[in-house]
Every structure is written in C-alpha cells, then in structure tokens.
Design brief:
The protein is mostly beta strands. The protein has one domain: Porin (Beta Barrel), CATH 2.40.160. It is 6% helix and 65% strand. The chain has 1 helix and 10 strands; from the N terminus they run αββββββββββ. The strands form 2 sheets. The protein has an 8-stranded antiparallel barrel with strand order 1-2-3-4-5-8-9-10. Strands 6-7 form a two-stranded antiparallel sheet. The chain is elongated. The protein starts with a helix and ends with a strand.
Length: 207
Amino acid sequence: MKKTIVIIVSLLMSLGYLRAQFTVAGEGIYIMPVGGFSGWFDRHYSGTLYLGQVRQGNSFLLGRIEFYKFYKENVGKLYYKDLNLELKVYGVGAEYRHSLFDVYFLNFYGVVGSGLYRWFGLRGEYFFKDSVGNVYDYIAERRYQEWSAGFWGGTGVEFKIAKGLSLNLNARYQIIVGEMWQTLVLRLEQASGFQWLGVQAGMQVKF
C-alpha cells in the first residue's frame, strides 16, 4: 500500500505537477454486475482510495488504489444455488475527472480512467447427490489467476461543503478484461469481461 502511494506521488512529480493543489478522497461503491458477469455474482459493496491533484478549475487528475472481493453468488441466476464462486481483484489506476460546469456549490464532471489488475478467481468443487444423499458424480474446483487491464467512464457531481472539503457522488461503467470459463455440466455460463455499473459516494479533501 505504502509503495503504491509513493509510486503515484513520484509519477505526479515527474510530470511537473508539484505546484498544483493536491487532493485525497475515499469513496464507497455499490456494484451491480452486468452481462455474463451477473450470471456469477450478485450486487455488493466495495471501496476505493484516491490520491491526486486539482488541475485547471475544478478538474482532477487522480491515482487510485482498488480492491474488490466478489463472494456473493447470484443465486437468482445460478442453476445450482449452492455452488461456491469467488473473485478477488487488486489494482491501481489513473482517473481524470473533467469539470463540465460549475454552479455555486456544485461541480458537474465527467469521468474516464484505466488501470492494471491482478485477479484470482474460483469456481468451487461440486458433488452431485441422489435423493438419499449418496454422491454419484463430482466436479473438481477450478482456479484462475491473471493480469488484466481495466477501463471505466461515467459522470458525477461534487458538492462543496466547505473550503477544501467536498462530497462526491458519481455513477460509472467499468470493465476488467478477464475471463472465467463456462462449466456446461453445472449450467454455468462464461464470464467474459468482469463488468459492472457502480454508484460511488465519498468525501474529498483538498490541501
């Protein structure tokens, strides 16, 4: 974590941004998987830490540290409701929030960004049993791990509460270019691209 923050600050320094005003933010995320990814996992919460700088006006260039743990299976779409699924994602990225227009204490902005991710996936083992509980077939677990790129975009609004302090609310679409394969015997479809819609909210401090 400390090494990642040092890397982000060093990058900003190398780009000649030391004279700018800096900002730190923490935001919670409500994640809604879409596409084939929604056939594996249900909605849940996560969070992101930002470190960056204020550019022209009320636009921001931010580095962010991410961790997502998907563990809540979408039992509404799974054929076998007790199948164990899990995905852990670690990543760092860069995000630009461009101010579209600023009205009194409100700053409306657009969001674009990209990142690099290391992820670990699991499709658990499964025992097929007859009506009296005897096992007649078995599917071994499958594990995945990979490095992948990710991209996102969206829009949001900054509420300026006080000097140097604001509340952010934004919505976005994000995709990580990863893949977890289908298992036909379990009627589990392929998750090609980990993609979701997210609603983020949190506090931002400028200094």
